[in-house]
Amino acid sequence: MPPHAAATVVHIVDFAFVPSAITVQRGASVTWTHANSLARLHTVNSEDGAVESPDLVYGQQFSHTFSTPGTFRCYCHVHSFMSTLVTVVDAPDKTVTDQGRGQSEVLQTSDLHRMSTYDAFVHAASLNQTSVVQRWIDKGHDVDHHDTDGYRALCVAAQNQCMDTMALLVAHGATIHLKQTGGQTALHTACTWGKPQAVEMLLRLGAPVDLQDDNGQAPLHCACQHGDPLLVKLLLQAKADPYIADEHHRIPNDIAHDWKRLDALRELNEYCATTYKQHMQQLFNVALEGLHQAIPSGVEKTIFDFLA
User: Do 64 and 49 touch, CB atoms closer than 8 A?
Assistant: First the structure.
């Protein structure tokens, strides 16, 4: 660990990570402490899989050393609406120079992780800092441009349900369906982090419900992993495909089952047994209208049952 990289402690209290966003130097350790007396278990998991804690009971701690600069978005596997952001930066370079009779210490800041204008723009969007976002827009910044980690302003605003910032970005031409790192759209991020108001807004604006990310997952997969049945209901009402499969051939039902999201599973099953079946019957009837000869009713029923 670099000499200036101090350990940072994050407390899990009242179903929240406190503080919710931290910045540490490369090589520093972050320790999470389960201090939430209202929950039996908590975990700490990052989206990219770099941080994976065991189940933590009250009073237990988990530490992770961050050896690579970047932004790490973490959540609790048990209570997935909880999120925290760890930003890892390079430590300043220290150069000791000899100046004649005396020696002086010169600190030089590394340029390797200097925040770009788009880093600042996206970061402000994630914090719902509309005045800052507006200033960047007034300077002519492209609202769709990603930061150095590949994240986009609308996606991170949706992730944090920053409604004012989302409205501001859309008003200035933000592309609803544009993907960020990992292939996720704003609808993906809102569903992943359980933000129903952001989901409703994006759906009203015409966000495509079945776009798939780099892992083949659609927003409905993300909603089922989170587990909020309202997210699932909103997507299904927008005609999301309940049978869309990811790269591992898992449909949303599989995700809800594997993550034990029982409320989401019930919402899916009810939709597939009623509304979806009625919709498929309508499509089936339209298809049959093109036939010149009727097919036997038994065959028709068999075909429909197979398709539905």
Answer: no
pLDDT digits (tens, 9 = 90+) for 121-170: 898 899 999 998 998 899 899 999 999 889 999 999 999 999 999 999 99
3-state secondary structure of 11: strand
CA atoms lying within 13 Å on the CB side of residue 195: 24
Contact 96, 103 (CB under 8 A): yes
User: For residues 133 and 169, is the Cβ–Cβ distance under 8 A?
Assistant: yes
CA angle (158 as vertex; 148, 77 as ends), nearest 5: 90
What pLDDT, on a 0 to 100 scale, did the predictor assign at position 104?
34
b/e burial code for range 96-131 (CB count within 10 A of at least 16 → b): eeeeeeeeeeeeeeeeebeeeebbbbbbbbbbbbbe
Closest CA to 243 of 213, 221, 266: 221
Give pTM, 2 decimals: 0.59
Domain ranges of the chain: 8-91, 117-276
In 3-state terms, what secondary structure has residue 102?
strand
Options 3.30.9.10, 1.25.40.20, 3.40.50.150, 1.25.40.10; which CATH number does 117-276 get? Answer: 1.25.40.20
**Which of 203, 201, 245 minimizes the C-alpha distance to 224?**
245
With the C-alpha atoms ordered 254, 259, 260, 263, is the resulting torsion angle positive or negative? negative
DSSP category for residue 182: G
* Distance in angstroms (rounded) separating the CA atoms of residues 90 and 25: 6
Contacts of 196 (CB under 8 A, 6+ apart): 228, 230, 231, 234
| C-beta neighbour count of 228 within 10 angstroms | 21
CATH of 8-91, one of 1.10.8.80, 3.30.1330.60, 2.60.40.420, 2.60.40.2470: 2.60.40.420
